[in-house]
Fold these 2 entries.
Entry 1:
Amino acid sequence: MTNELKLAAAPISWGVCETPGWGKQLDPERVLTDMKDLGITHTEFGPAGFLPEDAIERAEFLSERGMTAIGGFYPAVMHRDDHDPLPALREELEAYRAAGAEILVLSLDNGTSSYDDKRELTDEEWALTARRLNEAHELAASYGVRAVVHQHVGTLCESPVAVERLINDTEIELCLDTGHMLAGGNDPLAFVGEHADRVGHVHLKDVDSAQATKVLNGDIAYSDAVADGMYRPLGTGDAQIGAIIRTLREAGYDGWYVMEQDYRILDDSQIEQAVRDVQDSTAFVRSI
Ligand SMILES: O=C1C[C@@H](O)[C@H](O)[C@@H](O)C1=O
């Protein structure tokens, strides 16, 4: 196991999030420069509006700054029979093709633009979602893109029940987000021990499990817990990042590891701390 780990970054560590009203959104110039300063040359796109919308312009914007896109996070409403997510997905995949991006990270959007609500899909909604996920998987493959599902707090794939259904009833791989797995009540290390073959992409995120338990129990809203620092620099929380990386590598996973410490920057004084945290996380991963 001497091959180098493929390390990338994502704008969420700089507070750039798809949720309206999340907090201060640092501009792409700052975010991409910081990534480059950390020796990172690959990034996820970040939410709509962060980079130029036009696919060609977006790809040029990145390459002029010495960066390459590996793909991005794409929330999609898949469970409603009055809404077909596939036409918009097709457009997104065209942009991926133009940018040479290889990974489409789907999340199961609940339609509320917030991660503070929790619910399971009904059996009927799940049957429709599972069918559409398999279609999305095939559609993406026809563009040369690997579609993966991101289990995520406050989406319709959060809990152990939802993750199990995804594994059993679909063909699609997962974006294993170590922090969201733990925060959603799953055991990320046990998961990779059992299902490393279903991991198609990895988001490395560490989490304070005491804070995460409060979110799970409904004692604090997810967005408030993130603002309170529920996500920690890699290696300083409870997600067992080192053991997870080692297990994945032993199982032959050779895809991307994207560093993500979800940040809500509510005050300018927090910006430099966010940047220091990414520096610490990068150093931690490189030490493994
Ligand atoms: O992969 C991700 C993308 C983010 O924008 C999202 O909010 C975050 O939680 C995440 O894990």
Entry 2:
Amino acid sequence: MILELDCGNSFIKWRVIDLDASGIIHASGLADEPERLLEELLSLCPITISHCRLVSVRSDTETRLLTEVISGSLGVEVVCAMPSIKLAGVTNGYEDFQRLGLDRWLAVVAAYQLCCKPCVVIDLGTAVTIDLVAGDGRHLGGYITPGMALLTEQLRTHTKRILYSAEEARMALSDTSPGRSTSEAVERGCLRMLRSYIEDQIVCAARCLGEEPAIYVTGGDASLFAEARQVEFVPDLVFKGLAIACPL
Ligand SMILES: Nc1ncnc2c1ncn2[C@@H]1O[C@H](COP(=O)(O)OP(=O)(O)O)[C@@H](O)[C@H]1O
Ligand SMILES: CC(C)(COP(=O)(O)O)[C@@H](O)C(=O)NCCC(=O)O
Ligand SMILES: [K+]
């Protein structure tokens, strides 16, 4: 079995899939910290892990510690995705290719392999990233903004009277009519702002790419954009890119 890990700034997503091309998922999870991840992985017995591949946007130190803990506890070598200028027909559009977030890089590589045409990749995670790929596989670059959790957290931590619970936040997103409480005003305001931003980005991308691009959405907050126009939800887009970058 292969253990795959996507280490984002909020959550470490992991899954265990078959070694063969079936890609059957035998286990998966989401851990907020390495200690929690290890508990989940050690509880996987009797599943035996023979290979491990990982992509991380955390610091080099945290990523190294994570690979050492996984390698030490599961007895497998951890193969880490690395920056590259070209991969699977996609050319990295950053001036310094090594600075492009590896989650973004793997997501655009996977997206282009899915469609082989101009595409837009939207990852709604801690940050919201939007990347454009031309029809010939050139990554044109993209945009980074705070995600929902960061937007609302900034308001709560930088004001004195914006205070509400996680449950109130969850309830607030039942619809986007004018908020009649602090939680509704903040959560709905931030959601509408992000939705308008994403809609605008999609319109501009179609103009920039010269034809209707394929639009792929992934990330923990993707569900908040469910009613967005015709987009394709690919929750495991980064994992698809990881398999391309680190074939076994
Ligand atoms: N299990 C979860 N519990 C709470 N929030 C979650 C969960 N999964 C995803 N989210 C939401 O998605 C965001 C992070 O999604 P994710 O794509 O995992 O981020 P990253 O890749 O940046 O770690 C959180 O800020 C939160 O809004
Ligand atoms: C933009 C990101 C923080 C998004 O990470 P995430 O929200 O998935 O945790 C990550 O892609 C990153 O660290 N990028 C490096 C900077 C850049 O892409 O320009
Ligand atoms: K991510």
